[in-house]
Write a structure and sequence with these properties.
Elements lengths: L1 E3 L7 E3 L5 E2 L16 E3 L5 H4 L5 E4 L8 E5 L10 E2 L2 E2 L7 H4 L3 E8 L2 E2 L4 E5 L3 E2 L7 E2 L11 H27 L3 E10 L3 E11 L1 H4 L4 H9 L2 H10 L3 H14 L1
Antiparallel strand pairs: 1-9, 2-11, 3-12, 3-13, 4-6, 5-6, 7-8, 9-10, 9-11, 14-15
């Protein structure tokens, strides 16, 4: 059995009911957040995430598929929303980060990717029975603990939301609405900035959609996400201001 870890996770293993877990303290961030300038965003997060971050689409397979991300930096391994190990309390923390160290992962069995996903956990967060920091998420009868219930809810809701995210991205690409763009800016403290590899919705092309396509965007709630994405472009200015402030300090 091969488990494909999602972005940012290192060594994930299946989570079992008898697993003992070192639960992180509220506000603790996974290690990968300080080493990336983008975090995946799901369908239901568009409206709230657009208030703080530029939301763009990216592809990792040459345009075969696309996914939305929130930009949190303008350099490759830069997060402008973390300081002294804490996320900016005034900014929304994406669900992708909040679910750590758990995730739902793709599993390949006999070279065949399985339809169902498996609940997994970062291996370093597991504990043995002698570890005082380890906690069971289920009792001997299989009943979930109060600590596990919100985690399970987040994982289930996020996984369902990912299906809508994938559908939205596929429809936008199929309708020819996505176009590549580059951020170019010059800051006195850091010099020229050139951020490429991003896709955005070409708003004028929406007018060229036929009635059926436009109805699909409205019925599936995609059109609202499109305009949240377009309005989030204003956040590029605030992101550059953060960059300048960080450089000055």
């Amino acid at each position: 059995m091969q488990i494909n870890p999602p972005f940012g996770y290192k060594n994930i293993v299946p989570f079992y009911r008898n697993s003992r877990v070192r639960l992180t303290r509220p506000g603790t961030l996974p290690p990968f957040v300080t080493e990336t300038n983008a975090v995946p965003i799901s369908f239901s997060e568009f409206a709230i995430a657009a208030r703080d971050y530029p939301l763009v689409f990216v592809t990792s397979d040459g345009g075969k598929s696309y996914a939305p991300v929130a930009l949190i930096g303008v350099a490759g391994n830069e997060n402008l929303f973390v300081r002294d190990g804490a996320w900016d309390p005034a900014a929304y923390v994406p669900a992708y980060i909040r679910r750590y160290p758990f995730c739902m992962a793709k599993v390949t069995l006999d070279n065949q990717e399985q339809a169902d996903r498996l609940t997994c956990i970062e291996k370093s967060c597991l504990a043995d029975e002698n570890d005082a920091d380890g906690a069971l998420m289920f009792d001997a009868a299989g009943k979930a603990s109060p600590a596990w219930e919100p985690i399970a809810k987040l994982l289930e809701e996020y996984e369902r939301d990912l299906e809508r995210t994938r559908e939205m991205s596929a429809i936008l690409a199929d309708y020819g609405l996505l176009e590549p763009f580059t951020l170019q800016a010059t800051l006195n403290a850091t010099g020229p900035i050139n951020l490429a590899g991003m896709q955005r919705v070409n708003e004028p092309k929406i007018e060229n959609l036929n009635a059926t396509q436009l109805k699909t965007l409205i019925k599936k709630g995609i059109l609202g996400r499109v305009y949240a994405h377009l309005m989030s472009m204003d956040a590029f200015g605030r992101l550059l201001a953060r960059k300048a402030q960080a450089a000055a300090q």
